[in-house]
Amino acid sequence: MNVELLVEPLKALLHSAGEFLPRLAIAVVVLVAGWLLAKAVRFAVVRGLRAINFNVLTERAGMDGFLAQGGISTDTTGIFGILVYWLIILATLVIAFNGLGLTYPDSDGVSAAHGVAPNELTASADRDWLAGTPWHKHVPARIEAA
């Protein structure tokens, strides 16, 4: 029995894991940094809105009473902080998952990297390697007189 035949799939598995683990580590670092950033920005937004007395304005307008009648225990300022927090978490998840560089077979059966394509005019080679965002200096443009 040929031992090389048995070892070859194991070599391929270890090679794939060796390529993927650094990307996974970067994605975990991005997730942790994004989570910390989201907490800091939420704190800053809530503190900033309270510093300009936004909570007094919403209380006088009756929004906090309306939220309390609906069973919401936080005020409008806290809701704005939570909204900003989750927007940053969502952006962090998009960046982290695009940074993994996962490939899927397309309609022709060829493995291709898929992800968010915010600009179809930019080729995938002209994108940031981590986040997949396009470098707009490579987008062909033509200016015409109106």
Approximately how much beta-strand content do the residues carry?
Answer: under 5%
Please write the string of helix (H) and strand (E) elements. Answer: HHHHEE
- Using the CA coordinates, give the radius of gyration: 24 Å
Number of domains: 2
Strand tally: 2
Low-pLDDT segments, ≥5 res? none
Word description of this protein:
The chain is mainly α. The protein has two domains: 3-102, no CATH class; 116-146, no CATH class. It is 60% helix and 4% strand. The protein contains four helices and two strands; from the N terminus they run ααααββ. The protein has helices at 3-51, 54-61, 63-69, 76-99, and strands spanning 103-105, 111-113. Strands 1-2 form a two-stranded antiparallel sheet. Strand 1 and strand 2 form a beta hairpin. The longest helix has 49 residues, at 3-51. The radius of gyration is 24 Å and the shape is elongated. It starts with a helix and ends in a 33-residue tail after the last strand.
Summarize the structure.
The chain has four helices and two strands. It has helices at 3-51, 54-61, 63-69, 76-99; strands at residues 103-105, 111-113. Strands 1-2 form a two-stranded antiparallel sheet.
